[in-house]
Amino acid sequence: MQEKLRSHIEKIVRLNDEEFELVLFHFSIAEFRKNQFIFKEGEKVKQAYYVVSGLLKLLYTDSSANQHIISFAMEDWWESDFYAYFTQTKATMSLQCLEKTTVYCLSLESYQHLCTHIPRMERFFLQKSNLGFIGSQQRILSLLTTSAKERYEQLLERYPSLLQRVSKTQLAAYLGVSRETLSRLYS
Amino acid sequence: MQEKLRSHIEKIVRLNDEEFELVLFHFSIAEFRKNQFIFKEGEKVKQAYYVVSGLLKLLYTDSSANQHIISFAMEDWWESDFYAYFTQTKATMSLQCLEKTTVYCLSLESYQHLCTHIPRMERFFLQKSNLGFIGSQQRILSLLTTSAKERYEQLLERYPSLLQRVSKTQLAAYLGVSRETLSRLYS
DNA sequence: TCAGAATAGTGATCCATGTCACAGGTGCAT
DNA sequence: ATGCACCTGTGACATGGATCACTATTCTGA
Lengths: 187, 187
Fold this sequence. Notes:
Chain A has a domain at 2-118: Jelly Rolls (Sandwich), CATH 2.60.120. Helices cover 50% and strands 22% of the residues of chain A. The first copy, chain A, has helices spanning 2-10, 17-26, 82-87, 108-117, 119-145, 148-158, 160-165, 168-175, 179-185; strands at 27-32, 37-39, 47-53, 56-61, 67-73, 78-79, 94-97, 101-107.
């Protein structure tokens, strides 16, 4: 399990054993059942999560009680309500398991400690953040420029396994269309 | 002008004179006329830009020749096609001036050099990247959950000056609605 | 193993927004 | 000053997608 984390980090920066020891010291492991909430809207967000196995959704519930999925987090992904995390305020979104999920947890203090004491970890987080930013911007572009049908096809192309792992209802909430409309896109 | 850059950076991290000297050495200044393209889709993106004065739009032109505005960049903002920048590939988006604009330019090598030699600059970029990521995610949320009208009102509330500075056509391209629809939102 | 809850498909209807067309206003350039 | 390009508003119409309602199927937990 720690090998997984290590190789994940070492895809971007090298760490010696001593450094990785310190990294590991700052993470904790947690396991959640299917459907369990890791945190809910309104709660303080104390951790960022690295998904070892399982599947998460980051969701927002609007005033009409409709769920919107900002993102799915599969193996090797990082997830949290990062605004709430970095500002240590209450979550506006919730993080919930779509499957039984194991995560590594990193508190903000630990994050800052690692950044300060292991420059390569700061480099790692910078790289991750840049990639996350780029990914979000592409999602914005896809929401602005493509139809629901195209977005559905793009999603299947990029993450074909998702179709097996999540319900159509969830996919629709991610794509920004109603369940019924999604159902008609391929019939 | 350099004072502007310095105080922008020092909102996040302290720099001594020597460090700022090095920072400044890696930036170059450029000026562009209204409507001029800083780069166009298909070109290599060699720089990231810090806006000293003026106003930029980052835009994507789809296959039907419709323009979509991913973001505006006002004073104190950073902008580029960051995917193309970090991977040193060709731009999928274009960056164009809505007003006469002065920018500081930072090449990828300079960016990396600064990150490596001035840890506080790496901290600065990490902070900026995190904020950028959070901002994009909120834009995604707003595209998923709110109507064009609400988005228009949110935009005016956050950046009231934009209404004076850009045409309705531009605003519509940013909000993801047609010019006509936007026109009807407040009549 | 069985009942209730999710999940999925589909018909009917309605509405928001896109598209096309036109006209008046403003500002810039020759 | 004149003319042209751009910006804006608005009417008419088309349409994609939301909403509501119902049914069939699959999952799941006591």
